[in-house]
Amino acid sequence: xxxxxxxxxxxxxxxxxxxxxxxxxxxxxxxxxxxxxxxxxxxxxxxxxxxxxxxxxxxxxxxxxxxxxxxxxxxxxxxxxxxxxxxxxxxxxxxxxxxxxxxxxxxxxxxxxxxxxxxxxxxxxxxxxxxxxxxxxxxxxxxxxxxxxxxxxxxxxxxxxxxxxxxxxxxxxxxxxxxxxxxxxxxxxxxxxxxxxxxxxxxxxxxxxxxxxx
Length: 214
Fold this sequence. Notes:
- This protein is an alpha/beta fold and 214 residues long.
- The protein is 36% helix and 29% strand.
- The chain has helices at residues 14-23, 30-34, 57-62, 73-79, 104-107, 120-129, 145-148, 163-167, 187-192, 194-213; strands at residues 4-9, 39-41, 47-52, 68-72, 84-88, 94-100, 113-117, 134-138, 154-159, 171-179, 181-185.
- The strands form two sheets. The chain has a six-stranded mixed sheet.
- The longest helix has 20 residues, at 194-213.
């Protein structure tokens, strides 16, 4: 039986997460990854990995299906799940931004601001803290299209290079926060599997320290 089950976000973070874990001695074989199974063991058999959509990682960890998880801070802020976040893994660096074809001064004169986003909680908290009235238009696809088609005045989205924004005539108006991949831990597992969790955190921390010195 594996000591720990780790939920890994599929997509943008997956390769970087597996590379970070491999540097800490937690290695998933190429054969296991090539099998396309959504649950695999590492080479030692001490760890079980489940690969799920990013938004599902906090759910699996909070409910104890997984002891730990690797997921972006953007997803954690949006989910508001009750998890421990003992380690910033320094992977998948990006920014959560407000972007618009309009200048910030123009946006402030719109009255009710229409905001297209995949992050309704983050958007509501950001604009709410500034006392700005908004209408949130929740999308699951390419939010960059929304201002160009007249659906919204601006967007709140994750940006890595900014290239997609530029291609859609959008500029960053404001950076809400930075986001990187985080190790998250279920609160009960942190107590009941304290030694295994601590060993994993220590191994990751040590490998990151060695990497920084290289």
